[in-house]
Design goal:
heterodimer; A: about 130 residues; alpha/beta; OB fold (Dihydrolipoamide Acetyltransferase, E2P); five-stranded mixed beta barrel; 3 helices; 6 strands; B: about 180 residues; alpha+beta; Lipocalin; eight-stranded antiparallel beta barrel; 2 helices; about 15% helix
Amino acid sequence: MVVLAVAWAYREFNRKPAGLGNSQPAFVLSDQQLLQSYEENEEAANKNYLGKIVQVTGKVYEVVNQGDSATTIVIGNEQAMHKVSCLLQQDAATQVNKISKNELVTLKGICTGFLMDVELNQCVIVEIK
Amino acid sequence: MKHFFYFLLAGTIILPVAAQAQVKLFTKTGTISFHSKTPIENIYAINNKGLSVWELSSGKIEFAVLMKGFEFEKALMQEHFNENYVESDQYPKATFKGTINNSNLVLLDADKSYNLTVSGLLTLHGISKEVSTTVLIVVKNGKIRSSANFSILLADYKIKIPSLVADNINKRVDISVVVNAYQHM
């Protein structure tokens, strides 16, 4: 019993942040729907989406490589001030060279809130259409 | 569309005159990291999505970062950080609004480094406190990089650490802010 408890405690202590590969999204929507709810009322949108797995579909505006294997896919309309900025999970970053501008993609990630863009973290690519 | 072209046209005429006075720089990919070190545990977290806007002539500078965007090595640390310490559901953002002194001396067309002072209000966990530090600005080949370090006391921001783990977390946390490439707005 004690051994089990210690083993559990050890695993729990060293647990890595979970990848999103097989996790079910709490919300499935378009980039425009997500943006609209944040533009209308940030506080209310946070109550819905903050910390949740959100799956969005939209057109790729740009792919930003920050080095250190941090890659972001920005989706949204060319002229729009606010977009959805998806920071990829490290193992998803290898898929990124398959993606080009204006392509329709579906990504899921954890919503961390709204700055200039709606921010999703630990994103994985669900589908490239 | 027509208006947009007028805007561009106006820009080409007015911009060269007003350039130095109007320059606004921004980034959406500032790196904010923090470090707490004790003999028992090293805690490090990083956020690569800091937003910053810096007006060169006045020196006004702002940062905003999402608390849930900090990534830790261990899941448990990340959960405790969000749920218990900074309460990121209630306070999703941290912001800094301040001024870089002598910011107007920074020339964007010459390779040069500047050591300037910056001070302003850091808002975190719903509490605003004055902080000041030095910022190193490096202009090289037209690229503008900035970096600054400072430290805060958790108690100043009413971040409570349970006594059980109090020895694992330093009461003073070192914060590093790096912008690799400011862009023109």
